[in-house]
Amino acid sequence: MKLKSAAIAGLWLALLLPLSSQGRTKPGLPDFLTAPAEKTGRKCVFFMFGHYDDDSVISGTINMFVREGFEVHSVYVTSAGMGNVLWGTTTSRKEEMQRAVDLEGVPRQNRHILDVPDRQAVRHLPEIMDQVTALVARYKPSLLITCAYEGGHWDHDASCLAGFVAAKRTGLDITRFEFPTYNAAGPKIQPYQMNHFIKSYGPTLYVIPDREAWKVRRQVRYAYQSQWFLMLPEGLIFAYRHLLGRGEPVRQTPDYNFLEPPHPGTEMVSRSVGALKGHPFSEWHDAVASLPEFAESKK
Question: For the chain, which terminus, N or C, has the lower number of CB atoms within 10 Å?
Answer without folding.
Answer: N
